[in-house]
Amino acid sequence: MGVIVTAIAVLAALCGGAGLTSGLERLFVRPVWEPGPVHAADLRHPLDLPNADRWLLPAGPVVAFAGTALAMIVVPLGSGLIGRDLGIGAFYVIVVIDFVVLGLALAGWGANVPNTVEACYRIIAQLVAYVVPLGLAYVGVIMMARSLSTVAIVEAQRGLWFIVLQPLGFLLYLVTGLMQSYRAPFLEPFAVSIRGGVLGASGGWSALLWRIALAGVLFLVAAIGAVLYLGGPNGPVLPGWFWMTLKTYALMALMLGLGRLVRPLSTAEMLALSWKILTPVGLLNVLLVGGLILLGVRP
Amino acid sequence: MTGTATVHSDYGFVGLILVMTSGLALLAVAAFARAPRRVLDPSQAWAQYRFGYAVYALIFLAFDMEMIFMYPWAVVFTDVGISAFLDMLIFIALLGVGIAYAWGMGGLQWE
Amino acid sequence: MTAAFEILAFAVSGFVAIAGALGMTTTMSMFRSGIFLMASFIGVAGLFILLAADLIGLLQIMMYIGGMLVMILFMVLVMHDPGGAMMAGMDMAPIERWFSAGLEPRKPRQGGHGDHGDHAVQHTDDDGHGSHEGHGGMDMSMVTPVRPAAAWLAIVVGTVLIGMLIWRPAWPVVGTLPDPDSAARVGHLLMEKYMIAFEGAGFLILIGIFGAVLLARPSTYPDDPSRSAKVAVDRKPEAIADDRIAPLAGRDRDHRAGDDGL
User: Which residues 212-271 on chain A approach chain B with CB closer than 8 angstroms?
Assistant: First the structure.
């Protein structure tokens, strides 16, 4: 019984977090800006696409939603407030968030509409761009925490947050986190010029699931960022869940704000940025952190 | 045996979340079953496409493989110490050569 | 109770693995084919997790989500009719029909909100699908004769494998299972016992990068005008409505901050 209650709590946390996220995100979207993943979608009328692949298209939002829900399991919201402390939690998060990309690609190709197929190609380009630098940003933290478990990573930051020890890794995480959540400068897959991509070919229940999944991705990226670099639920006096929520949404606001300072990048520019700048910086960060640990600088 | 039991119960929970997510999705489908439907323009888009990031994609596959080695290495780095650092230095140098080669050959660009 | 769950999980993972492999070979859509292969590997990952090797299972999932999505792009690049909308309407074996269900275009439902009539049947719009007219017959001739031979080969290989299973019934069973901290265990093995293999893998990856760059360089790509290949994404996307900053020239991407304000 307790297991089911925990599972419901995890899903409720995801939905609540996603709801708050879309509330916060509204503050960062002006009518003249590219909306990106908050592009308008028809929430009332389900959509009929006569030429669509009738299995892939509906599978898309379900897979994406499932990916966010699975990732939510290992996010520690406070001491004891965690779905499951998987031994390889941080790595597990990287893997299951990829299901969002998979879902977007499924729906993009499955819809068989030029705009969505274009979105499918852009989404896969986004995957090609973000996975390696994001992984390198995780690796620095894992080296210092000496564990892949999210709870152990939070524990390791009881004295000092990793943002202090690895500012370069934190910057890397900010940029790749924006790529991973398709937010501001990297919103090509949801550009207005292709009518919101997959969102333009969704309606009714699928639009609803996309809303949750896309807000959920941003929420998860911010929450995991808070866990990796800002000490997660650690904090004085007030309870852990308060600190976790505060850090998550502060980091999210920081990311959204910084992202809006920059002109949206095309897919080609994003790929060049990722492979020519972020990946070398990530490798450098790994070496720097390794050197720091060997010099005895550790939390 | 406890190791197996822990892993099974952990991933059993993951499976439970998966089942509940599917249930929620089905609920969402059912909730919209009676809503009026909208039909979109039935133009078709399934054709052969060239894509501009073929080299990026292939290099990505190689680096994805490399990241697999990174995570277990990162966990034990502090325990193993300097030899782990040298190991990874060689590894990263090899990859750096790879990325420099791709860049130098003009692979890292949109075609 | 636990045993029942284990059997259930094994059955589900095994079913996904086998059905994915079957679907990969029999579906008419290239895209689905790749997705089925991915599903098959995810089923195998489930089996790994059942064996308490969760790190390997998740590595498998990570590799094959990225790998298959990229591979699908290359399959779409070289195949005629990658979506299978043409082939799906043709004569198919039952298993092919099963794995290609829902591919062929249908007429839009009457009474919807759309303002177009019945012109949605497949042969009327040729802007999106310029190449399908002449290729139907060729695709069939390419696919059909190989298939029985492949099926026989698969049956032979399967029989041999099952025979090996039966012939060698005494599988070694370990008494104690290793500790669940699989990442640290794998890391120690990589750093100590299998260090040469680890560096060798790095070297192989390097060779792989060399090969990829050599094969896929822009100048060597044969541009065959008879294919309906398109550039999927523009180098410069359409102008963004409120773009107050001039698009940057290629070189100076790294200082790209502007004053767009919040």
Answer: 267-268, 271
φ/ψ of A104, rounded to 5, equals -65, -40
**Contact yes or no for A86 and C54 at CB 8 A:** yes
User: What is the distance between the alpha carbons of residues C40 and A62, in angstroms, rounded to a whole number?
Assistant: 18
* B40·A201 Cβ contact <8 A: yes
Structure tokens at C245: 């900053």
Q: What is the DSSP letter of C197?
A: H
In whole angstroms, what is the distance from residue C143 CA to residue C90 CA?
A: 13
User: Which residue numbers in chain A have pLDDT < 50?
Assistant: none
Distances (CA, A) of B4 to B10, B75, C48, C177: 10, 21, 11, 7
List of residues 6+ apart from B106 with CB closer than 8 A: C217, C218
Backbone φ and ψ of A86, nearest 5°: -70, 145
Beta strands in A37-137 (DSSP E): 47-48
- Which residue in A113, C141, C253, A265 sits closest to B40, CA to CA? A113
* Span A103-139, pLDDT tens digits: 999 999 998 888 888 899 999 999 999 999 999 999 9
Q: How many CB atoms lie within 10 A of CB A112?
A: 26
In this structure, what token pair is assigned to residue C246?
């001039």
Q: In this structure, are residues A205 and B28 in contact, taking their beta carbons and an 8 Å threshold?
A: yes
pTM confidence score: 0.86
8 A C-beta contact, residue B49 and residue A118 = no
Residue B38: DSSP 8-state: E
Contacts of C247 (CB under 8 A, 6+ apart): A263, C236
pLDDT in tens, C115-143: 333 333 333 333 333 333 334 444 444 45
* Cα–Cα distance measured from residue C48 to residue C58, given in angstroms and rounded to the nearest whole number: 9
Nearest-CA neighbor of A184 among A221, A141, A236? A221
Q: Which residue of A has its CA nearest to C257?
A: A262
- The whole-angstrom distance between C162's CA and the closest CA on chain B is 27
Judged by CB atoms closer than 8 Å, whether chains meet at C241 and A109 is answered as no
Q: Choose, out of B37, B43, B51, B87, the residue to mutate when testing the contact with C (most C CBs < 10 Å).
A: B51
CB-based contact B51:A256 (threshold 8 Å): no
Contacts of A244 (CB under 8 A, 6+ apart): A76, A77, A78, A223, A226, A232, A233
What is the C-alpha to C-alpha distance for residues A285 and A273, in angstroms, rounded to an integer? 16
